[in-house]
């Protein structure tokens, strides 16, 4: 059957996105040199939120200014001192008047999708870093106001603690950390060896796991042609949310995202696997029990029989008070590891969270 595009029964489909070259000379014009256009593979993906797209457009303009500086600009090899105010950037979400924007960020409970905000925050961080300076060399940041100085000192303290902790982890295991490992593993061994006698308010870490997989598509790339880090954060958050939901049995409420590790880039076409679990729970505050969820992203290459960790994400959730009030039987189980490797991961996160809480208290 011959296809007739002019038939009244033919439904025409058009792109809802503007071309990156909107307003440029006609692309079909032979006088328009192809060398003046980016290759299609370097276009930013078309999956992203309007906020992310706006931030990337701003970043591209900054790059253009850096590549073509004014004649009186200092040489790029000369480091400058910049204040936090010079890179301060705000995002305004007009949810009250822009109904299309509101629909793009709405979750099933008519609240804002946190994963979409994390996606935008990743793009915002990249834009701010470009405002501060190119990848090398980096301009020195000089806080001026008291608030800026406090934030700067707090960030420096967190970085120093993180660096020191890397060296201390191994020594701690050698000098008494073994006892903590054994305490964590004791209940897990009962589950493995005598499951009928295990504490019914306890669950093995491995029994809280969820997983999903995807092939990274061109629509998910950033302006550099790699998979956008904000997209990875979105997918990790939504898996973590589902993990907390399945674990608690009630609607979870997001509290915080901890330090995110970007260990290696993710490329278009990569086979990406997200694996999540509840690492541990905290019951000190009965009104707000905490569920700490880990999500690890793996780039898997079946042809090479290899799998590498690309990202680690850590999220903390609780349960909404109104949901607890409607369920008198509700309880949060204690999560226990079954292997030494799981126990080490749990201890590492407990210590990191403890150090972070101490740091916030000091502020």
From TrEMBL:
Protein family membership = Belongs to the acyl coenzyme A hydrolase family.
Designated gene of the protein: LOC104213559
What does the record give under GO molecular function?
Answer: fatty acyl-CoA hydrolase activity
Composition skew (Low complexity), residue ranges: 24-39
- Please report the name of this protein according to its UniProt entry: Uncharacterized protein LOC104213559 isoform X3
Keyword Iron in record: no
Q: Which UniProt keywords apply?
A: Hydrolase, Repeat, Transit peptide
Its BP terms in the Gene Ontology are: acyl-CoA metabolic process
Keyword check for Lipid biosynthesis: no
Extract the InterPro entries matched here: HOTDOG_ACOT, HotDog_dom_sf
Which residues belong to any copy of the HotDog ACOT-type domain? Answer: 206-323
Question: Which SUPFAM superfamilies does the UniProt entry name for this protein?
Answer: Thioesterase/thiol ester dehydrase-isomerase (SSF54637)
Annotated region described as Disordered, given as residue ranges: 19-39
Give the matching CDD domains.
BFIT_BACH
